[in-house]
Design brief:
Belongs to the cation transport ATPase (P-type) (TC 3.A.3) family. Type IB subfamily. By secondary structure, this protein is of the alpha+beta class. Among the domains are: about 5-80, Alpha-Beta Plaits, CATH 3.30.70; about 210-300, Calcium-transporting ATPase, cytoplasmic transduction domain A; about 415-580, Calcium-transporting ATPase, cytoplasmic domain N (3-Layer(aba) Sandwich). The chain is built from 24 helices and 27 strands. The strands form 5 sheets. Strands 14-27-26-25-15-23-24 form a 7-stranded mixed sheet, sandwiched between helices. Strands 16-22-21-20-19-18-17 form a 7-stranded antiparallel sheet. Strands 6-5-7-13-8-11 form a 6-stranded antiparallel sheet, with no helix packed on it. α4 runs antiparallel to α5, α5 (about 150-165) packs antiparallel against α10 (about 345-360) and α12 (about 390-400) packs across α23 (about 695-730). It is elongated and about 120 Å long.
């Protein structure tokens, strides 16, 4: 099914409780598979099943919005009908509102100097009340007509009118005044949070200097194509991903990676959209279109993060749906029942207590602050180069107890170097290296690249192999495109994952009739390479490949990855390749254990001796080695079955062969700098700097966010319960009730903003 996404921006949406109602009713529109409202960005996202139904569905959604929030301006992002007149109209209405409030406050102050029995005081009090609360009263009246009764406007109207009815004029006016002041400060705090989060995402480049013949033209980044040449001047943002072909400079990568120190780049270096060029002039050849660039993907990830809500958010939304009606019913019973059953009581006394109930019953403190807390955590993590794709994954990070690592490119740098070449059976070392380089020349694996580099450093470029005019040499491009679309399946079942694994790792064979050095090439995932080179059958791979082909090989006892080579089924020798550990790998494992992780595990295809050495050096609890790609999935399933239902298991990887495990994990973490597109697509968290230690930061952000969210829940509910109890007993008045509503909401919103600050973890 081809689901279409459409977005409506709800300009002026300031009621979180109303936002939850809009989302809930939009989900029930026929033809809508999913509806999500992001209160932070004020965006309603609809997933529509049938393209022909889009117009009808959008009209129904707009009708729902107008019914619940008639003053909200609806902007269809596909039409882009945003205009300055709406902003001017909004500013004008705000000025009128504040003028009315100012006059109302003056009249309210005057009433304190008038005699209690004076008719003038009554008139001034009513005038002050109407000036201060007119907006709330009008909204409440409109909502009642539309059948939307239980909202904060209704509660405040009933409470304040009730106070006036029992001649508690100062408190009736105070309820409306402090509600309005509280709402104003609350809106300011929410807007500040929105701006802070939006500022974090202000990384989109506005233009690119595109080379047109001998000149450069300023164009939109979306108008630049792959292969085009762009110029980046000092102080400008890099608009698209590309490779430097001229110039050298220092670039600020902090917006994307969180790295504080500038990075040096020169000819041959890769630069990503969103970097800021600090000093030199750079000429760059574009390698990715804007839609596929790093900056575009980051913006998309963060903007869509709010659609995947945490369980806590969903719970609070459901809670608010029942909480307000229950408290309102309790207020009615509190006003009526005691008067009927307790002799000598006055209705006005219990009505006042019931009004206190109504004022404090609004759940906005929870409905606003919790999404802000999660979104703040996601925004704060992105500032550190950690992209979390949804608040549900941020919540899952809090519960992680088992961390599973891939080795190459995750714990190690993935930069291999040939350290030994040992030939056997009358084959020289130069010949052995040449055959190995020819066999590995089509592979994109880091080990293959290291062998090719070692040969080229010694003998020059392998010209006969890398001639793009020869059809066989185009296989490298073909091999890069074997990832099936099915990898987008999230949290697939075991059989689906097994199919994905087989689809990814089937041998890639290519034959050519061209007179060429290398023919009948076959790459066997988890084993090595078979090829015919200069008329000879060449095998290059690990010990398992030698065993499968019944080759008597030399069992080497050394640290590093061993590539055995056989020529025409005769053992020709081996090459030792070493990979260096990342600087922060050991400290990451130690920090994870300090955070209370029950188990750290490494899964690798390396020989058991090499894997064990690395595991011991890093302090990893369990190491599983010599694993084929499908065996990685099986081993992960075993680990998954050992955890408790509440515990979460996390997997960190960077390559195509990690994608099935990333999709299966509760939280899949991809190394975004070195990682493949498939791994990034299948993951839930992306670490842009390829530093394992950022995993520790991500977990700390998740824990801090969770603490803030629960602080808000406990604080808001605790204060409300206390005031409800005191109000029922007659010890709390309207002043405390107003604080229990807008005051608590304001404090909760300000507390949520702490999630943006990840510097103090």
């Amino acid at each position: 099914m081809n689901v279409k996404k459409r977005e409506l921006i709800l300009e002026g949406l300031c009621c979180a409780n109303c936002a939850a109602k809009i989302e809930n009713k939009s989900k029930n529109i026929s033809g809508v598979s999913s509806a999500n409202i992001d209160f932070v960005s004020k965006k309603l996202t609809l997933e529509i099943e049938n393209e022909n139904e889009i117009i009808r569905i959008l009209e129904e959604a707009k009708s729902i919005v107008k019914k619940i929030e008639p003053d909200v301006k609806i902007i269809d992002t596909s039409i882009k009908d945003i205009n300055a007149e709406a902003d001017e109209e909004d500013n004008s209405s705000k000025k009128i509102k504040f003028a009315g409030l100012a006059v109302g406050v003056i009249l309210y102050i005057v009433t304190f100097f008038l005699a209690d029995s004076s008719n003038v005081k009554v008139i001034f009090s009513i005038a002050a009340y109407l000036l201060i609360g007119a907006e709330v009263l009008i909204k409440s009246f409109k909502n009642i007509i539309r059948g939307e009764v239980f909202d904060e406007n209704f509660l405040m109207s009933i409470a304040s009118i009730g106070a006036l009815a029992i001649k508690q004029y100062p408190e009736g006016i105070a309820v409306m005044l402090f509600y309005q002041i509280g709402e104003t400060f609350q809106d300011m705090a929410v807007d500040r949070s929105r701006r802070s989060i939006t500022k974090l995402m202000d990384i989109k480049p506005e233009f690119a200097n595109l080379q047109v013949k001998d000149d450069f033209m300023k164009v939109h980044p979306e108008d630049v194509n792959i292969g085009d040449i762009i110029l980046i001047k000092p102080g400008e943002k890099v608009p698209l991903d590309g490779t430097i072909i001229k110039g050298a400079s220092m670039v600020d990568t902090s917006d994307l990676t969180g790295e504080s120190l500038p990075r040096e780049v020169n000819v041959g270096s890769t630069v990503l959209g969103g970097f800021i060029n600090e000093n030199g002039v750079l000429t760059v050849k574009v390698t990715k279109g804007f839609g596929e660039s790093a900056v575009s993907k980051i913006l998309e990830l963060v903007q869509n993060a709010s659609s995947k809500k945490a369980q806590t958010e969903n719970f609070i939304t459901k809670f608010a749906r029942y909480y307000t009606p229950i408290v309102t019913l309790s207020a009615v019973l509190l006003a009526v029942v005691p008067t009927l059953v307790i002799p000598g009581t006055h209705f006005s006394q219990w009505l006042y207590r019931a009004l206190v109930f109504l004022v404090v019953s609004c759940p906005c403190a929870l409905v606003i602050s919790i999404p802000l807390g999660f979104f703040g955590g996601i925004g704060g993590a992105s500032r550190k180069g950690i992209l979390i794709k949804g608040s549900n994954y941020l919540e899952a990070l809090y519960n992680v107890k088992t961390v599973v690592f891939d080795k190459t490119g995750t714990l190690t740098k993935g930069v291999f170097t040939v350290t030994e070449v040992n030939s056997r059976n009358n084959i020289t070392e130069d010949e052995l290296l040449e055959y190995a380089a020819l066999a590995e020349s089509y592979s994109n694996h880091p080990i293959a690249k290291s062998i090719l580099k070692a040969y080229e450093d010694k003998n020059g470029k392998l010209e006969t192999v890398h001639n793009n005019d020869i059809p066989a040499c185009k296989m490298r491009a073909k091999c890069q495109n074997i990832m099936p679309n099915s990898i987008n399946l999230k949290k697939s079942n075991n059989s689906s994952i097994d199919k994905i694994s087989k689809a990814i790792f089937k041998p890639c064979k290519y034959k050519s009739n061209t007179d060429h050095d290398t023919l009948n090439y076959s790459e066997l995932a988890g084993y090595g390479i078979k090829a015919i080179i200069k008329g000879k059958n060449i095998l290059a791979g690990n010990a398992k490949l030698m065993k499968n082909e019944n080759i008597a090989y030399e069992d080497v006892n050394t640290i590093g990855t061993i590539i055995h080579i056989a020529i025409d089924n005769i053992y020709a020798g081996y090459i030792v390749i070493s990979d260096e550990l990342k600087n922060d790998s050991a400290s990451t494992i130690k920090a994870l254990k300090n955070l209370g992780m029950k188990k750290t595990v490494m899964l690798t295809g390396d020989a058991s001796r090499v894997a064990a050495e690395i595991g011991n050096k890093l302090g990893i609890d369990e190491v599983y080695s010599e694993l084929l790609p499908n065996e990685k999935v099986e081993k992960f399933e075993m680990l998954y079955s050992m955890k408790t239902p509440k515990e979460k298991i996390l997997y960190v990887g960077d390559g195509v062969n990690d994608a099935p495990v990333l999709a299966r994990a509760d939280v899949g973490v991809a190394m975004g700098g070195l990682g493949s597109d498939a791994a990034i697509e299948a993951s839930d968290v992306v670490i842009m700097t390829d530093e394992p230690s950022k995993l520790v930061t991500a977990i700390k952000v998740a824990r801090k966010t969770q603490y803030i969210v629960w602080q808000n829940i406990i604080f808001a509910l605790g204060i409300k319960v206390v005031i409800l109890a005191l109000g029922a007993l007659g010890f709390a008045n309207m002043w405390e009730a107003v604080f229990g509503d807008v005051g608590v909401a304001l404090i909760a919103v300000l507390n949520s903003m702490r999630a943006l600050n990840v510097r103090k973890l």
